[in-house]
Amino acid sequence: MDGAVVKLRRPFCVGLTGGIGSGKSTVAALFAERGVEVVDTDRLARELVEPGQEALAEIATQIGAAVLTAAGRLDRAALRQRIGREPETRRRLEAILHPRIRALAGERVYAATGPYVLLVIPLLAENRDAYGELLDRVLVVDCSPERQLERVIRRDAMDAEHAQAILGVQASRAARLAMADDILSNEADGDREDLALQVAALDMHYKALAVA
What we know:
Strand content: 5-15%
Number of helices: 10
Strand order of the largest sheet: 2-3-1-4-5
Distance between the termini: 30 Å
Mean pLDDT: 90
């Protein structure tokens, strides 16, 4: 009908989250191996700060050209140092990137064609309101804070104090678990087989929910 507005139907969407070092990337990769479409907000953030992108230009203007390399790319190390010293810099960066990440995530979710789509949002507990309308279910990858700390120190070759500071600014384990519809335990190091079994069961469950 002329003038009619066609509203796109959003695919069933599962939000995947978890604290740093919990194993989100491994879990997302296991879902992808099963053919699930994965939209990762960290990857979207990297897309948005590529040279020529509007967000990168705004970062240079509002935060300073010192966070760019000589080649005009984002100097992530310099930016991390600024964020660590200056809380206001973190707020400016979030104001520049978060709305754009949310908008791009929505585009990718709506464009997904599989039975369901997995939307990876590391800081979902801190930004639930921004993503709530996109999500039908929340999956939390969980492990103890002690295990998180061990993994971050080993993976990123940083000292315990720095790693603990990163964990300290994220939402608590209790806050993440409180928002979970499903919990995937990843306490054991290197047990990819156990993770794969948990992912397989969840994949079947989400496919059933998507057509219910």
